[in-house]
């Protein structure tokens, strides 16, 4: 309490000093107060009431009246906007209208007094005394209109302007908080930040989906603009001895192998940087360029590795909730609005379907009645002509039991898989912040890969519908399986351990059973795999055999084997896809919307 009071008194003293500095002269652009400072200052902005300050930003909306305007100004430093009330008589008002700087997207520097707001939902507003136009904005050509609802696809086409939207602005502040929390977490625990190379000759994942780095193509284009001029060695293969690095080189898919070299000398290190994968995937879960957090810990085993990953995830989520909670709340509101819109559309579709079914049933009934009347009329006419004996009117055709209530039977069939997935529906019904708090408050569930396979096989036996229902030990789990385990079965993050060696990388430590490796994946609801880690193979002979087993050359990894030849130690580490973490905290579905300039097949704009 004493520390809080001292901090408040210090802030008040700073404000008084600033007021004294400004006394006798109006604020300049250099003296501007950010909107984040305004809303985060003493008593959440109330301490600014009565002060004349300058605020710069972009116009979000303007409500014009005959003699004044209500301007919503934002500067991107917070999710809050500042309401500015500007009378038409103040300096700069006319120039603002002429430049169309009061329209959405226009930029202004506004000087005015912070006053108590009579409006509901806001404690204060600015009464402008002067407006300085920084930049106009023609609403006829500005892509981001005042009230238009823009799709995520459209915003990706104008990635240079989409940070001005509330959606991308909030995402960016959350991403920043998670990045800062990453460094804070590791630095406070004595880890060294290690910069690993982006250009490599090693394939860490062994998948072969890497972007190649070469200068040979540009040289070939200079000569004849065709690939035939590429230098060739014996057998027709490209002669890389003439390339920049004198050998094939690629953009790194991971910094792990290089990170291990420093962990095996400095004990605890972490990397945090961009990685690249040339996977021709257009799903909402993959990018060609993405960021990875990869700690490496000397003297650690798999359990310690899992403990570290769980602690890191919880730390970063809590930091984001504490520092940019307003932005997380914005995404929660967006998510609830989307749920309501979907429910409304589904209700409308159900209503239309019910009406169509009723109309079809009525038509069928009328057609049957008409058919019966036609038969009766034909029978009566035949009897009158004496060509047929009078017969009783045919009774209405009876339906087989299974046809009497087809809708009820279809409902029963649909209910079976729905019942199996009921817990998932319950989990998704939770609001965003409730889901994040659930992550913080509960230990991550730990189980083996083998136990997970048994759970999935039981789910299939009970009628749960997967796209891939052929669940076998040794298979690589799909996203649907990972999400079922975390969302349906446990409804919280799950750490799967001890995977089959044949579906994991060569550097993971072989377990004593000879079939599995000391690997772990952390699966989270709504995402699937968030973390992949392992205890690294520290035995040189075993590692060399594993390298050969996946078709790689031990000579190419001689430097990596040296770490085991010279003072080997047990060590472990993991990799976390940063964009997936941002998705988890924001609830954003598409990974292309949690990175400033997304790269995916066919898209490398801006």
Can you characterise this structure?
The chain has helices at 2-22, 35-40, 93-99, 152-157, 166-188, 216-223, 256-266, 302-323, 325-385, 401-404, 406-420, 422-429, 432-441, 449-461, 479-489, 540-549, 558-565, 578-586; strands at residues 52-64, 68-74, 82-87, 107-116, 124-135, 192-193, 199-200, 212-213, 249-251, 268-276, 289-298, 445-448, 494-500, 516-524, 528-535, 571-577. It contains 18 helices and 16 strands. It has 606 residues and is an alpha+beta fold. Residues 393-424 have low confidence and may be disordered. The protein has an 8-stranded mixed β-sheet. Strands 1-2-3-5-4 form a 5-stranded mixed beta barrel. Strands 7-9-8 form a 3-stranded antiparallel β-sheet, with no helix packed on it. The longest helix is centred in the middle third of the chain and has 61 residues, at 325-385.
List the helices and strands and how they pair.
Blueprint: H1 2-22, H2 35-40, E1 52-64, E2 68-74, E3 82-87, H3 93-99, E4 107-116, E5 124-135, H4 152-157, H5 166-188, E6 192-193, E7 199-200, E8 212-213, H6 216-223, E9 249-251, H7 256-266, E10 268-276, E11 289-298, H8 302-323, H9 325-385, H10 401-404, H11 406-420, H12 422-429, H13 432-441, E12 445-448, H14 449-461, H15 479-489, E13 494-500, E14 516-524, E15 528-535, H16 540-549, H17 558-565, E16 571-577, H18 578-586
Parallel strand pairs: 3-5, 6-10, 12-13
Antiparallel strand pairs: 1-2, 1-4, 2-3, 4-5, 7-9, 8-9, 10-11, 11-16, 13-14, 14-15, 15-16
Helix pairs in contact: 5-8, 5-9, 5-18, 8-13, 12-15
């Amino acid at each position: 309490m004493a520390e809080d009071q001292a901090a408040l008194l210090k802030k008040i003293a700073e404000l008084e000093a600033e007021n004294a500095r400004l006394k006798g002269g109006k604020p300049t652009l250099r003296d501007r107060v950010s909107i984040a400072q305004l809303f985060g200052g003493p008593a959440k902005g109330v301490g600014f009431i009565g002060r004349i300050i300058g605020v710069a930003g972009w116009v979000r909306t303007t409500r014009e009246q005959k003699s004044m305007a209500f301007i919503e100004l934002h500067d991107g430093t917070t999710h809050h906007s500042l309401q500015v009330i500007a009378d038409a008589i103040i300096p700069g008002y006319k120039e603002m209208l002429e430049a169309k700087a009061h329209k959405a997207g226009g930029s202004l520097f506004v000087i005015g007094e912070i006053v108590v707001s009579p409006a509901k939902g806001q404690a204060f507003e600015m009464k402008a005394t002067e407006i300085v136009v920084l930049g106009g904005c023609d609403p006829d050509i500005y892509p981001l209109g005042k009230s238009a609802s823009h799709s995520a696809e459209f915003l990706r086409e104008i990635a240079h302007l989409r940070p001005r939207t509330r959606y991308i602005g909030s995402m960016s502040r959350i991403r920043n908080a998670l990045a800062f929390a990453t460094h804070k977490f590791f630095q406070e625990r004595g880890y060294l930040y290690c910069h690993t190379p982006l250009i490599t000759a090693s394939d860490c994942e062994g998948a072969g989906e890497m972007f190649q780095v070469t200068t040979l193509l540009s040289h070939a284009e200079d000569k004849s603009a065709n690939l035939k001029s590429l230098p060739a060695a014996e057998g027709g293969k490209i002669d890389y001895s003439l390339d920049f690095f004198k050998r094939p080189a690629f953009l790194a898919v991971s910094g792990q192998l290089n990170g291990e070299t420093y962990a095996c000398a400095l004990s605890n290190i972490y990397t945090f940087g961009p990685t690249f994968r040339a996977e021709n995937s257009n799903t909402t879960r993959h990018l060609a360029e993405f960021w990875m957090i990869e700690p490496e810990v000397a003297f650690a085993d798999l359990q310690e590795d899992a403990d570290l990953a769980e602690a890191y995830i919880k730390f970063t989520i809590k930091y984001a909730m504490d520092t940019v909670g307003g932005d997380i709340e914005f995404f929660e509101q967006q998510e609830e609005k989307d749920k309501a819109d979907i429910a409304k559309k589904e209700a409308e579709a159900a209503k239309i379907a019910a009406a169509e079914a009723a109309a079809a049933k009525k038509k069928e009934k009328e057609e049957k009645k008409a058919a019966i009347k036609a038969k009766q009329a034909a029978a009566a006419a035949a009897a009158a002509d004496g060509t047929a004996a009078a017969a009783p009117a045919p009774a209405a055709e009876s339906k087989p039991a299974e046809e009497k209530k087809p809708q009820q039977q279809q409902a029963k069939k649909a209910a079976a898989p729905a019942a199996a997935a009921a817990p998932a529906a319950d989990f998704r019904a939770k609001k965003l912040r409730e889901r994040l708090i659930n992550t913080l408050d509960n230990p991550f569930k730990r189980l083996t890969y083998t136990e997970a396979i048994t759970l999935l096989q039981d789910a299939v036996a009970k009628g749960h519908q997967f796209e891939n229902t052929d669940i076998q030990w040794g298979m690589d789990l799909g996203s649907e399986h990972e999400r079922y385990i975390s969302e349906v079965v446990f409804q919280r993050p799950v750490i799967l351990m001890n995977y089959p060696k044949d579906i994991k990388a060569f550097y993971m430590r072989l377990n004593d059973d000879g079939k599995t490796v000391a690997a772990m994946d952390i699966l989270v609801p709504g995402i699937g795999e968030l973390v992949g880690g392992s205890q690294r193979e520290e035995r040189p002979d075993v590692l060399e055999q594993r390298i050969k087993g996946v078709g790689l050359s031990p000579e190419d990894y001689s430097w990596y084997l040296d770490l085991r030849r010279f003072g080997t130690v047990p060590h472990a580490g993991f990799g976390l896809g940063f964009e997936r973490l941002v998705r988890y905290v924001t609830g954003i579905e598409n990974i292309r919307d949690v990175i400033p300039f997304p790269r995916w097949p066919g898209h490398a704009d801006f």
